[in-house]
Amino acid sequence: MRGRAGDRAINALPEQEAAAEPEYTPGSAEDFERLYRRSYRKILITLIGMLGDPAAAEDCTQEAFVRAFRAWSSWRPGAPAEAWLHRIAINTAVSHWRRQRLRQVGEIIKRIGRPAPPPSPATIAENTELGRALRKIPAKQAAALVLRHYHGYTNREIAAALAIPERTVASRLAAAKARLRVELADWAE
Amino acid sequence: MARETRTFEKHLEDDLHLLLDPHATGTIPAWRMPEQSSRRALPVVGGAGAALGAKIVTGAAIAVLAAGATTEIVITHSANPIDWARNVQQQVQASPRSQGGPAHSQPTSAVHPSASSVGGGSPAVPRVSPPSLPTVTISPLPIPTPSTPTLP
Fold it and tell me: Is the pTM of this model over 0.90?
């Protein structure tokens, strides 16, 4: 599974960067730039899967890298750098997702009795069945699904990215898939 | 059941790629080193500002003291503070009020005529009683004492 899901994502990287994760020195600006170039797209894709809005995902990705850079000197070389970055990015996206939900509730209250506005052009591209279903499940469950079924991460890497115990990853993935099955009832038939 | 799950997962992977692959080929924006955030810079600026303020206040105080000392040196032609005190005493003695003259006579000059002779072996200064200053009596405010209940 990892091979298949991982191959396509890794193929998007330049040849010299497609090898195993290189070693980084905490606090080194050059190393951080390498990490940025290597993992930017992966992070962006995970956040698009979580948020369903490419523009918001780009903003969150940039914000996550800025946060990561500030904490770069405290990163421990023992932990996989990409999973560490994913953790920061997912937390950034979850905060955005919560703010967005609150804003939506506020807009619904303001709009009571008026017709709904048309969907924003940024999200129209994501209006596939799966895109809509992913937005209905909790953001961290969506992230787990993308990490496993798109990036091909192992349970250990997902655990590091989501800051949860490894044994929780399987149950979270199972819950996410069960929820998706309900949302996409006639999809897999 | 397992086959069904595998079919679902395959479907999920295919659709995830359909959904997300178009974003995997976009250009990566150049990494720009973030500047120091203003939130972090503020305490530094505040600290520097406070230090600068303290220096200005200290400098002003020293300048005032130095100006006062310089004035006294110019008047008495002596760097000895004892001579400054002596000069003040002489001026007080020479003032019309202490001599019993009219209250509003000619203005006294800042430099006493005998000031030039103060520096080098001036004669013994006569005892002078300084003019009486109005006394201000400060009565302390009564401090309320808690009344303790008297025991029977």
Answer: no
